[in-house]
């Protein structure tokens, strides 16, 4: 029986480049569990390297890019760059641990890795972390649609108040007409084309941020009082010397420590959360191997690192300390009307809308692994879970006035579990070839401790922020 199963595997993965996958699939578990139970999980990958990189990049890229300039203003350029590069390197190391644990554990599903390492407790921990993190991410995207789409439509059509300009209605319309049909797709590979378009939108956003740096003078004496139109800004003399009191406003700061500095560190850390999507993308990678998937991760994280740094730097150098928590909103305080910026807002809306289906995929996988383990693919269940998740997120966005602090707390705990704690813990438990005294295991132990400290510290800071600034006290 075992020989026939191995022959089946060999015939499915006959390509020489997939030798590691054959080792991966026969890693000691076939003697205990029938191959048929894993046939769905271990299908040959069909998604190319480029599309996989697009998918992972789009999973990393999110609404957080709009707040990075504000984070830089509250950390300083040098400290921000140090933290950004540090988080990127830690994320790459975390992906390495996750792929190693996946190979040794014989599974490309996060929940199964948790279960094989720590039993039901590990499975529930992985399920809860993935679900909470991604529901928070989807809700943040839908909040952007809720607040930005009415403004874009209002500006383009020149109308003020109509029922269809209500953000709550628009969230439902976009969910039903665009997001839900995309979630019907069976494989993530099909979304690679939308990922490429979404990334193109974000590159357009970055290009405009860089361009506007040379168009907007500093200081901006009317910032925050009333907006300027494009003609007024165009006639502003760049040679005019600012007042002495405004000198500091137009000088970049390299190290900043204030009440918001510590709170911005989690923002930077969570900017690279892509771990729930790593294993699903790995499972669909054509000619998959650990080395190839690591290359996919390296390309995606490096590309996003460059985009994050450029967007944060040019946004900060445009407004300095005047930058707001959402960069696009700062531009609206400067321009009364600007077609290019309206197009950017539209591009961001398209980007976050197309990201939702990709983020939803691992949640659906988690639900199926927890409640329907070993079941064959079923279209009704596939569509039903997606519909339920979208309804849940729409209700949160419609009826909860401000969930920023709530999901900040959930993100602090869930994202830290996914980045630091689960990959390192699974690696320590499942990788038997390395002794506990080896450098690899010691590194994983240090990484685990960092994750625990980071989780406790982040959650403590958020609780203190809630105490001094109760949720719902202002802003959305």
TrEMBL record:
One of its GO terms (cellular component) is plasma membrane. GO terms for molecular function: L-amino acid transmembrane transporter activity. The chain crosses the membrane at residues 49-70, 77-99, 124-144, 165-184, 190-211, 296-319, 339-361, 382-400, 406-430, 442-464. Signal peptide: none annotated. It is found in: Membrane. It is a multi-pass membrane protein. It comes from the Eukaryota. Residues 46-461 form the Amino acid transporter transmembrane domain. InterPro entries: AA_transpt_TM. Keywords: Membrane, Transmembrane, Transmembrane helix. Its main location: membrane. PANTHER family: AMINO ACID TRANSPORTER, SODIUM-COUPLED NEUTRAL AMINO ACID TRANSPORTER 4. This is Solute carrier family 38 member 4. It comes from Callorhinchus milii (Ghost shark).
């Amino acid at each position: 029986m075992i020989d026939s199963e191995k022959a089946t595997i060999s015939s499915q993965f006959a390509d020489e480049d997939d030798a590691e996958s054959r080792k991966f699939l026969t890693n000691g578990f076939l003697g205990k569990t029938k191959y048929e139970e894993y046939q769905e999980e271990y299908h040959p990958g069909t998604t190319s390297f480029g599309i996989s990189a697009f998918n992972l990049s789009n999973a990393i890229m999110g609404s957080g890019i709009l707040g990075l300039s504000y984070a830089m203003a509250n950390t300083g350029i040098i400290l921000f760059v140090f933290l950004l590069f540090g988080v990127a390197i830690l994320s790459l190391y975390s992906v390495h641990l996750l792929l190693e644990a996946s190979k040794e554990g014989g599974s490309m599903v996060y929940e199964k890795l948790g279960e094989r390492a720590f039993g039901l407790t590990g499975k529930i921990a992985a399920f809860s972390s993935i679900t909470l993190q991604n529901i928070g991410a989807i809700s943040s995207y839908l909040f952007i649609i809720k607040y930005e789409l009415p403004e874009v439509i209002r500006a383009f059509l020149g109308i003020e108040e109509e029922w269809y300009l209500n953000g709550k209605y628009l969230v439902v319309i976009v969910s039903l007409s665009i997001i839900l049909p995309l979630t019907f797709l069976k494989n993530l590979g099909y979304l690679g084309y939308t990922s490429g378009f979404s990334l193109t939108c974000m590159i357009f956003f970055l290009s405009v941020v860089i361009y506007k740096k040379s168009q907007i003078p500093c200081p901006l004496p009317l910032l925050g009082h009333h907006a300027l139109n494009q003609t007024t800004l165009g006639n502003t003399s760049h040679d005019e010397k600012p007042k002495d009191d405004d000198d500091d406003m137009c000088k970049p700061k390299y190290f900043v420590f204030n009440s918001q500095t510590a709170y911005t560190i989690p923002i930077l850390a969570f900017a690279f959360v892509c771990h729930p999507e790593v294993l699903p993308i790995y499972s669909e990678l054509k000619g998959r191997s650990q080395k190839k998937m690591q290359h996919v991760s390296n390309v995606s994280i490096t590309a996003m690192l460059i985009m994050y740094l450029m967007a944060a730097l040019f946004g900060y150098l445009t407004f300095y300390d005047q930058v707001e928590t959402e960069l696009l909103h700062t531009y609206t305080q400067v321009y009364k009307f600007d077609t290019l910026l309206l197009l950017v807002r539209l591009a961001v809306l398209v980007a976050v809308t197309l990201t939702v289906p990709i983020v939803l995929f691992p949640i659906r996988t988690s639900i199926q692994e927890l409640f329907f383990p070993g079941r064959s693919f079923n279209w009704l269940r596939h569509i039903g879970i997606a519909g339920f998740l979208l309804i849940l997120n729409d209700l949160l966005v419609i009826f909860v006035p401000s969930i920023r602090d709530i999901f900040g707390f959930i993100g602090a705990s869930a994202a830290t579990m996914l980045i630091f704690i689960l990959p390192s813990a699974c690696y320590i438990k499942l990788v038997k070839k390395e002794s506990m005294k080896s450098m690899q295991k010691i590194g994983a132990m240090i990484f685990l401790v960092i994750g625990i400290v980071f989780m406790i510290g982040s959650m403590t800071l958020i609780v203190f922020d809630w105490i001094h600034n109760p949720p719902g006290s202002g802003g959305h």
